[in-house]
Design brief:
two-stranded antiparallel ribbon; disordered N terminus; 3% strand; 34% helix
């Protein structure tokens, strides 16, 4: 079994966990502060920029719009679009997106989308 290790995922996750003001993946939810008018730190701006760079790459095939942050932080790519199309489970943020009406995979409904167990993506891409 070959495991795809992204060089950005582990350092990015460490920064996200250590940076002040981060409640969830940089204290940001799709570019908006989850804490109202809380100012962004330099560290949070750098992390958010790296997350956006990863999300704009060709390996980021997310199944919701706006795209999830979970896969960017944990793996550096997103297989959820492909997984959803094949009836396989998706990450927890994508499942939540489907429940909120943000799913974008043609022919699929919220009922079709299953959530994977934590750690379930490693080696399955």
């Amino acid at each position: 079994m070959k495991i795809n290790v992204n060089l950005f995922a582990a350092p990015l996750a460490c920064v996200l966990l250590a940076a002040p003001g981060f409640a969830q993946f940089g204290g940001m939810m799709h570019g908006k502060s989850m804490h109202g008018k809380m100012p962004q730190t330099a560290a949070s701006r750098k992390v958010q920029a790296q997350v956006e760079k990863i999300k704009s790459g060709k390996n980021y095939q997310c199944c919701i719009r706006p795209k999830c942050n979970t896969c960017a932080v944990t793996m550096g790519s997103c297989p959820c679009g492909k997984h959803a199309a094949m009836g396989m489970p998706v990450c927890t943020q994508c499942k939540g997106g489907w429940d909120a009406g943000q799913g974008v995979v043609p022919g699929k409904t919220t009922a079709d989308i299953k959530v994977m167990k934590m750690g379930g993506m490693s080696g399955k891409m």
